[in-house]
Design a protein that fits this description.
437 residues, binds aspartic acid, binds magnesium ion, binds adenosine-5'-diphosphate, globular, 8-stranded mixed sheet, 16 strands, 6-stranded antiparallel sheet, alpha/beta
Length: 437
Amino acid sequence: MKVLKFGGTSVGSAARIKGLLDIVNPAERQIVVLSAVAGTTNALVEISQAYTAGKKDEAKDLVKKHKDKYEDLIKELFSTEQGYKNGKELIDYHFNLISTLANELFTSIEEKVILAQGELMSTALWHFYLNEIGIKSVLLPALDFMKIDEDNEPMVEYIGEKLSHILAQSPENTLFITQGFICRNSFGEIDNLRRGGSDYTASLIGAAIRADEVQIWTDIDGMHNNDPRVVKGTTPIAHLSFDEAAELAYFGAKILHPQSVFPAQKYNVPVRLLNTMEPNAKGTLISKDGAQKGCIRAIAAKDGITAIHIHSSRMLLAYGFLRRVFEIFERYKTPIDMITTSEVAVSLTIDDTTNLTDIIKEVEDFGSVTVDGDQTIVCVVGDFGLNSHGYAARVLDAVKHLPVRMISYGGSDFNVSILLNSDHKTEALRSLHNRLF
Ligand code: ADP
Ligand code: ASP
Ligand code: MG
């Protein structure tokens, strides 16, 4: 069984929603995961922010503006009275729900309910459209099986058991549709897998049901060798290994959610990145044997990084020092991305600054601490193994005119990362591109 995921642009208009059938063959048994219609989740974030700020009138205007777009969309999508009626009832229901939350105490629980409405609408709209044109599909509510635990980690085994049971109840059906991004948390509340999370949903489902393949359909022809939003002349990569793709996704290649490679990798389910606008393009295949020796594959960048530098004379010859520092980050559930050490100092980076103040207070017990925000990690993926000489030097040569704050080399055979101030990101990406490719 295959899992196909279509992103926001791929379902971004009535024409695109209808066009899904150019790619999806309804006769094949498969699960199709949909994102919200392009722009919807951003709009829902804006509405939530207005509620949080107590700006009810502003929120009301935003809700109306956005509902009008959906009114236009359903007019174009449905051609029968019954189809339109179904669509109209659906959007009325969801936008009413969003409006009534204006009267509640607005917490992160209500916010997550609002953020879930986009995927709930897009999937139901496609299901109704298919019904209108006589194609059978089954709408699987993701909230019935997508679950995260108390550490916000997806529960793959649980998802697999639940889904297998649900699928077994419909042996005759072939086309199953479900929502990306949304899930339930350990309290049973509506939650989500963070922005861009529909990729993660697809990979989790693929892993959970041991799918033959996961296809991520988006608006570009695969993983490019650099960020196409920043650098001109980037090109798609035909084949990547899971490790390479995971590194690029984690370090900022927006085409994939940062965690979305791991579930597929764990169960060895190949992932294909494909272009909805150009369905015949080869795209990128991510699989176990995708690595290529003797070359540099791609560059990615992750913004919003904070660097923490701890200088401590007590570190000199001390064992257990790093453990005690790392324990602080662990207690605050804050992942560390990069780390470099010297005999008397350690520098590390984080991207989640929720608990930064508390963390720093505790870290200061070890020595003097400096903190710098607005940093960017630039990650170069390629063959940096012991037997491949000179590649790391080429990376450093390409950024020698820029103030590099940290360098990480040797953590794996396929990655060199550098940290610099975000002001230098564009120049770093361009210079690396020009010299490496
Ligand atoms: P979707 O809505 O389908 O999930 P996204 O906008 O999340 O699509 O991801 C696709 C976008 O990712 C592309 O349009 C492109 O601008 C951006 N992107 C950033 N880095 C890369 C890269 N290395 N390769 C391909 N696309 C990338
Ligand atoms: N709709 C969600 C977002 O915009 C999830 C996704 O598109 O992957 O973040
Ligand atoms: Mg995305």
